[in-house]
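Before relying on records like the one below, remember that each one covers exactly one chain. Contacts with other chains, cofactors or solvent are not represented anywhere in the record.
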Amino acid sequence: MRLPWIGPQIEAHPQRDRLVEILKQREAQIKAAVQQANKAQQTAQPKVGSIKPKADQQNVPKATVVASKRPPVQPDPTIVRPSWTFLQPLVA
């Protein structure tokens, strides 16, 4: 099959129209599946309402913070301290 706007030297594939139909059908199926999934997701989501407390706020004990008695961190004496000569001012 030759198409007049393409030119005489290029021929369209004989099954081109069938392939285009198949691709359009698949695209329509995918779009329908996406729409159904979106509808199902929207119906599955609970509607946002007022939030009600589940426990009486007056009867809930307050949390207490307990400070742990840890000694301050000390440097490891087995590690050799680096030389800090690079922090000295540069002399021109």
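The mean pLDDT is 76.
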